[in-house]
Write a structure and sequence with these properties.
The complex is a heterodimer. By secondary structure, chain A is an all-beta fold. Chain A contains no helices and eleven strands. Helices cover 0% and strands 54% of the residues of chain A. Chain B has no helices and eleven strands. In chain B, strand 4 and strand 5 form a beta hairpin. Classes of the chains: A mainly beta, B mainly beta.
Chain lengths: 115, 115
């Protein structure tokens, strides 16, 4: 079964607005990562947050992690048309406890930023 | 740095034939490589994990005799889809890692279409 579940499944906003995507997971994790994927392309790593961290920033990205609720959120501020992509959260694979870096991906949120 | 390439980017083959997909880490040594498949509008599903010089570990439900994985060197892993069928048509993505808690770097993906 999926470890990560994002919501919403699709999000459409205007350029300049903020976009918030959420991810929930089921088992304990060592870390949680967010990736973006442009249509038909590979994944680009955005940010990694460890289980002992609560918040992390990278440029216009802000990620929070609540291990008690088993959830994370990705906030993109001042969105641009170029941010249009699918965004996935990924957690380390419970089978290996993250020792090999195995990831389980959520279903993703498709973000559309209109100019 | 940390570039992963895949070849070919697109391949069309006839049902019953075999197809080999290469994944290369261009500027680092990848002790671990991962193979994922992604159906349209869906998330990435881990197929197998391979460590250099040892047999791949396949996820439940993935046929190891159908999806042959070889990780003969620290910079190259191959996935061979044997006796391909139309239901094998998918987007195959590899990632490479230096192992352990290190970040995974994803290739651009290979679009396989079996006719």
């Amino acid at each position: 079964s999926q470890q990560g579940e994002e919501d919403p499944q699709a999000l459409s906003i205007q350029e300049g607005e903020n976009a918030t995507m959420n991810c929930s997971y089921k088992t304990s994790i060592n870390n949680l990562q967010w990736y973006r994927q442009n249509s038909g392309r590979g994944l680009v790593h955005l940010i990694l947050i460890r289980s002992n961290e609560r918040e992390k920033h990278s440029g216009r990205l802000r990620v929070t992690l609540d291990t008690s609720k088993k959830s994370s959120s990705l906030l993109i501020t001042a969105s641009r048309a170029a941010d249009t992509a699918s965004y996935f959260c990924a957690t380390d694979h419970p089978r290996y406890g993250g020792s090999q870096g195995n990831l389980i991906f959520g279903k993703g949120t498709k973000l559309s930023v209109k100019p | 740095g940390a570039v992963v390439s895949q070849h070919p980017s697109r391949v069309i083959c006839k049902s019953g034939t075999s197809v080999k997909i290469e994944c290369r880490s261009l500027d680092f040594q990848a002790t671990t490589m991962f193979w994922y498949r992604q159906f349209p509008k869906q998330s990435l599903m881990l197929m197998a994990t391979s460590n250099e010089g040892s047999k791949a570990t396949y996820e439940q439900g993935v046929e190891k005799d159908k999806f042959l994985i070889n990780h003969a060197s620290l910079t190259l892993s191959t996935l061979t889809v044997t006796s391909a069928h139309p239901e094998d048509s998918s987007f195959y993505i590899c990632s490479a890692s230096q192992g352990g808690p290190y970040e995974q770097y994803f290739g651009p993906g290979t679009r396989l279409t079996v006719t």
